[in-house]
Amino acid sequence: MSASRRGARRRGPAWAALLTLAAATLVPGCGGSEPVPEGRSLVLITMDTTRADHLGAFGHPDSPTPTIDALAANGVRFTRAYAPMGQTLPSHATMFTGQGPRTHGALENYYVLPADAHTLAERLDDRGYETVGVIGALVLAVDSGIAQGFEVWDQPEGLWKSDQGHPPERVAAQVTDEALAWAVRRESDAPYFLWVHYYDPHGPYAPPEHFRPSISRDVVSGMVMEAAQRGDFGEAEATLDVISQTWFNYAAELEYTDQQVGRLLDGLRARGLLDDAVVAVAGDHGEGLFEHGHKGHGINLYEELMHVPLVITAPDGELGGTVVDTPVQLQDLLPTLLTATGHEFAGDGDVQGQDLWAAARAGRAPRSGSIFIERPHYSAERLDSKHNPRGQPRKHEYGLVLGIIADGHKLLKQVDGTVTLFDLVADPTERNDLAGVDPETAARLRGLLEDYEQRFRVAEPGSGESVSAERAEQLRQLGYGGDAGG
Question: Residue 474's closest CA among 173, 174, 157, 176?
C-alpha cells in the first residue's frame, strides 16, 4: 500500500458517459483556449507486438478491438505512429524517456536503461503522483532499468525453466487482476500514473482455451487472399492456409487482450479512478505475419514491424474524434502525456520528441520531421540463430540495418550499404523499390540517414551492458537468446 501523496485527484465527467458520447458531437482537431487541468491521472496501456493495421480503428475490417476502437473514436488517433526498434525494452525505454535508443542506450532487450535516465514515471513522481507499474513479461523486469520512478511495481515472479515451453509471461487476465487489486487497495487521493503492459499478442498466438473469439475466419481469410494477390508474402515458406490460421490466431490474441483492457477500464471506472484520467494506448512494435517472407519481429524495418497504434483520450472529451495523419514516433509520448495531464512542458535537452497534445489543441499538425528506425543490436550469435530453424541457411546479415521515414518515403540501408526506397503513400506495403527510379530522393534520404549515424554513434551490435545470469536466463526463455553480452 502506498502512502498518500500531495495533490488531489480532480473530478470530471464520468468515463462511462464519455464512451457513449458520439465523436460527431465534438469538433475534431479543435482545442480549447483554457489550460489543461493540472494533475490529471494517467493510465498508459502498452500492448506488446501489436501492429496498427490489425486493430479496428486502424483498418481491420472485422475489428477484434472494440474497446480500443471506442477510445480512438472519443480521443486522438495517430494513424502513422512509429516504433524506433522492433523490440520491447528499446521501444518502452523510448516511450518513457522521450529519446531514441541511440540516446537512452537500451539498444536491445539484453541492454539496461541507465539509472540516470529521466523517465516519465520519475517526472510524475516528482509532481506528487502515485506511480504504479504492472507488467506482463519479464523482458521488462525491474533489472532492465524500466522500473525507475515507479513507487508500486508488479511483475511475474520466479525463474522459468526451459522444460516449461514458452513461459515467461502472465496472460492478460492476470495482469488485469493485479492492476485492479492495486485499485481496490488504494487509499491515496493523489493523482496516479498506472502503466499496464500486456504481452499476449506476442507469439506464440494462443489465447486461453476458455476464450472464444468472435472475429470471422472468412473475413481474415479474405484479408490474406487480398494480401497474397498483391504479392505481400514474397518468398514466405508457408501455405495460404497456414498464413490464414496465423492471422486468425493473432487477431484472437488481440481480441482477448482488448477484452481485458475493457475489464481494466470498467474496474477503474467503478472505483471513480477514470473520472479525471487520461487514457493512452500504444503498441511497442509490430509483427511480421509472413509479409516480405518473414514471421516475427526485430528482423527488418518494414511497416508491419514498425507501424504501431497510438490513441490518447482525455477525460473531458476534448479533441474527441481527432485524427492525426502526420507521422509521429514513440519519442513523442513523454512530452505529449505530460501536457495532456496538465503539466507544462517547455522542452528540455533530454527529450527528442515533440508535444503532440499541444499541437492538437492548437488545431495544427505536428512538425513533420525525419523518423529514424533501426534493427536491434543483436550479437552475431543471436542473429545467426534468429529465425534460422533446423540449421537452415542464415537469412539475416550481421550488422546494422537502419531506416528513415520522411516526406512520404522510407529508405532502408542494409548491412552492405545498399538501399531500398519506398513510396509509403502509393505503396504502403513496400513492394516496389524506387531507389533506381528516383535516385534524387534516395540520395537525399541517405544523406540524412548517414548524418544521423554520425551524430548518434554507438558501439558494435551485441556489445551492450552486461546483465545478471538470472536476467540472461529469463530472456533466453522469452526467445531472446544469445549470451549475456548479446
Answer: 157
Which residues have C-beta within 8 Å of that of residue 164, sequence separation ≥ 6? 477
Task: Tell me what pLDDT residue 7 has.
Answer: 27
Name the β-bridge partners of 313. 279
Q: What is the Cα–Cα distance from 318 to 200, expressed in whole angstroms?
A: 31
In 73-112, which positions are buried (b, 16+ CB within 10 angstroms) versus exposed (e)? bbbbbbbbbbbbbbbbbbbbbbbbbbbbbbbbbbbbbbbb
Report the C-alpha gap between 403 and 449 in whole angstroms.
7
Strand 310-313 with 76-78, pairing = antiparallel
Which H or E run contains 280? strand 277-283
- The one-character DSSP state at 404 is E
Give the residue with greater pLDDT, 391 vs 151: 151
Could you tell me the residue range of the domain that residue 96 belongs to? 15-28+38-368
Which residue from 261, 168, 41, 187 is spatially nearest to 480, judged by alpha carbons?
A: 168
Domain boundary pick from 327, 353, 368: 368
Conformation bin of residue 332: beta by default, left when phi > 0, alpha when psi is -120 to 50 = alpha
144 and 245 assigned to the same domain: yes
Domain stop point among 340, 368, 396: 368
Whether 130 maps to a domain, the answer reads: yes
pLDDT band at residue 462 under the 50/70/90 scheme: confident
Residue 306 and residue 447 in one domain: no
The span from the CA of 140 to the CA of 143, in Å, is: 8
Average pLDDT, the chain: 87
As for how many domains the chain has, the answer is 2
Is 285 contained in some domain? Answer: yes
Task: Convert the pLDDT of each residue in 409-437 to its tens digit.
Answer: 999 999 999 999 999 999 999 999 999 99
Same domain, 380 and 397: yes
Is a pLDDT exceeding 90 seen at residue 128? yes
**Do residue 288 and residue 308 come from a single domain?**
yes
Q: Is residue 451 situated within a structural domain?
A: yes
Q: Residue 428 belongs to a domain with what CATH number?
A: 3.30.1120.10
Pick 480 or 27 by higher pLDDT: 480
CATH number at 180 reads 3.40.720.10
The pLDDT-based confidence of 138 (bands split at 50, 70, 90) is confident
